[in-house]
Amino acid sequence: MPKQVSYTTTNSAGRKRKAEDEEPPPDDRMSTSPSPSLHQRPLPPARITKRPRPGTSGRPLALSRLLETLDADSLRNILQTVCQRHPGLGAEIEQTAPRPSVSSTLSVLKSYESALQAAFPFGGDPTSDYAYNRVKPALTNLLEALADFTPHFLPPNESQASQSLSYLDIATEFIHRLPDWSTFQHRLHKQNAYEEISKAWTLVIQEAAKRAGGIHIQYGGWDEKLTKHNQQSEGKLQEAVHEMSKHLGWMGVQPPPTQQHGGRPDDLGSVRQELLSGTYGSNLPVHVGTW
């Protein structure tokens, strides 16, 4: 009977050997353990992911930037339009805006005067009716500006006499430079302007004489300036000159002699001022003894 051969041991051994074959050698097991050198290697920098920016699109300017682009005329027109639509804003703007100074007012008047000069036609008679009709709108703008600005610098709205006198000195110069038209009716503009500015001088002098002993009209040469304006206007500021002389004489200050038409001194007025100031006869010789 043939001998049976058992393959059980052989198969288990084969399976055991196969497991041993698949098991890594000792060197390989050591190589798979963490190496200290890996911890010493610098890590690559982390990649920064940029967020995509939103798409570019147009948008209106901010109010502050919009105002920066506007010139004075555009800004003034916008404010006037807004105030017409919202009347309550007008009073708030008046309270918020700084008071006009003499220098800022002078620049405005100069702009109107420049517009008047630029409106004259080239050639021809600058005092003719044709020239008057050409420049009438610009002339009206200048006269209206003088009429509007003058009350602003008068008491009680303006409490500083020096500011009032400085403005009146400049405003009178503008009136001197107004055209002398050949037609009498057209010359009334300049004559009326002289009358109004003379009343303004008179009011300021009266109020200045009541404060601080009239020191503002004693110093600064305002009497001489007013006398010069009166001479240049051919006596149209005589009322203001008389008011100045009256207060200076009361304060004991000798005013400059006024000029009558023809250039002769007003002797009666000079004697009157000496009587008021108590200096009459001080320049006469004193007789000693019997007369």
> Which secondary-structure class do the elements indicate?
mainly alpha
Radius of gyration: 49 Å
Strand content: under 5%
The total strand number stands at 0
Shape: elongated
Distance between the termini: 202 Å
What can be said about the biggest beta sheet?
A: none
Mean pLDDT: 79
DSSP helical segment count:
14
Order of helices and strands: HHHHHHHHHHHHHH
Assign a percent range to the helix content: 55-70%
Given as residue ranges, the uncertain stretches (5+ residues, pLDDT < 50) are 258-269, 284-291
What keyword list fits this structure?
291 residues; disordered C terminus; mainly alpha; 61% helix; elongated
Molecular structure report:
The chain is mainly α and 291 residues long. It has helices at 8-22, 26-31, 36-40, 63-68, 72-85, 88-96, 102-119, 129-152, 161-176, 184-209, 215-218, 222-232, 238-250, 267-277. It starts with 7 loop residues before the first helix and ends in a 14-residue tail after the last helix.
